[in-house]
């Protein structure tokens, strides 16, 4: 039978008392960040899958049967700086099987492909214990040959997860232990450099080891007037050159119903972080508390509150507390059509781990600075058009300080700096999404984001696209054949070689992928994945070509 992905409980935020002492201003030295001007464009959050919780979905009063069928999930879109999804992947074992098929909770999967690629994956779960469930998974995907210079652009990713869940009448407990190992090379060098006798392939290798442990508790009765979710965890990251980061985060989200139409909500975070890299030691903390009130009715919903954030950075001499207004208005003028508008702001964390998730070819001792989103004014509409069609549209105009970008270093252009615009940066974002669903058989979603960057001190928004679009499709045939097809498009990315002074506008990225999973019997399924079908050796970042057409195929066995 189908193996379901590991469930992840949505647990947010630890309430914290926010206080800080404002440091007196001092002259800013060259290369130093002003401690009163720390703001970055990128909303860095811990995003977890949504759960059916009071504070995530507060229903309108007396909703109609048609309204109850709808779930709107319009995201506050981030600027996309990560790689498109080009890593070979496969569908999980089928999630729909004939009724007579017995339930198999475990599976193993083996596959291989070009670029000397290998996939090994397994899942094991114990769910027959009273109120207790244990799950474990392991996955390894590697390519011994890369897009350029053979094994010098090879890569491998290994992931191990162990999860324990306990369900009582009033609460749920969950603990997660994980390990990730990512090995890759700095292969964005010239062929002339590789031909030199002094070239040592061992010096271009990089390896990231990440260990994380999280434990959380949440209310098990979502119909209760009081709802809560509390989670805390620690993550340790270390690379091959002994740079490290330890990040302890605690998150709390709570909600209480005051009347049938009014709810009080609070979201809070506490992060204690230390980064070490050679002679650099950063002790950086961030505390956030966000109390809000929500009024909801069949045609009108308003959320209003305050977002108070304190950040400290011992090395930069920062101790800064700011408060941002939070207002969101949602009106339902007709049927299932929503019109919304609002304003908010935040201090968004930039950690070594978060920056590496965007660009893994970072240079040593990169500057870590949080981004301040001074304000974000937005508006738009979302709704169901009938006939299986739904839409979302949003316009956002946001102001940032220390807007973050990625560009090649000097003189080693194989690595990347994180460059911040210390002035005021304004970003206009126009986002749209159109979806279609035909019961459980066919789904299609087209998304597009258009960005206009108005920077103060930087020449360009290095490494950031002006257009980012995706078209995702999935199709199920007779509960045996499962197909997904995706198309990714990026345009307007610029990087500069500061050694030569040449600015490059990278070619538009077109990346198409098709994945097929075919159920052969009660316990066996076959899969194949075709990636970068256009065989475009594009560059997401300057000098780093991606794999051309790559494929992966194999067998999955459930037991």
| Biggest sheet details | 22 strands, antiparallel, barrel
Q: Which structural category do the helix and sheet elements fall into?
A: mainly beta
Helix content: under 10%
* Low-pLDDT segments, ≥5 res: 1-102
Radius of gyration: 24 Å
SSE arrangement, N to C: HEEEEEHEEEEEEEEHEEEEEEEEEEEEE
Q: Please give the count of helices.
A: 3
* N- to C-terminal distance: 8 Å
From the spread of the alpha carbons, the general shape counts as globular
Number of strands: 26
Average predicted local confidence, pLDDT: 84
- Beta-strand residue fraction: over 45%
Report on the architecture of this protein.
- Its main location: membrane.
- InterPro entries: Beta-barrel_TonB_sf.
- This is TonB-dependent receptor.
- Keywords: Cell outer membrane, Membrane, Receptor, Signal.
- It comes from Spirosoma flavum.
- The chain has 559 residues and is an all-beta fold.
- Helix content is 3%, strand content 56%.
- It has three helices and 26 strands.
- The strands form three sheets. It has a 22-stranded antiparallel beta barrel. It has a two-stranded antiparallel ribbon with strand order 20-21. A two-stranded antiparallel ribbon has the order 24-25.
- A hairpin with a 3-residue loop joins strand 4 and strand 5.
- The longest helix has 7 residues.
- The radius of gyration is 24 Å and the shape is globular.
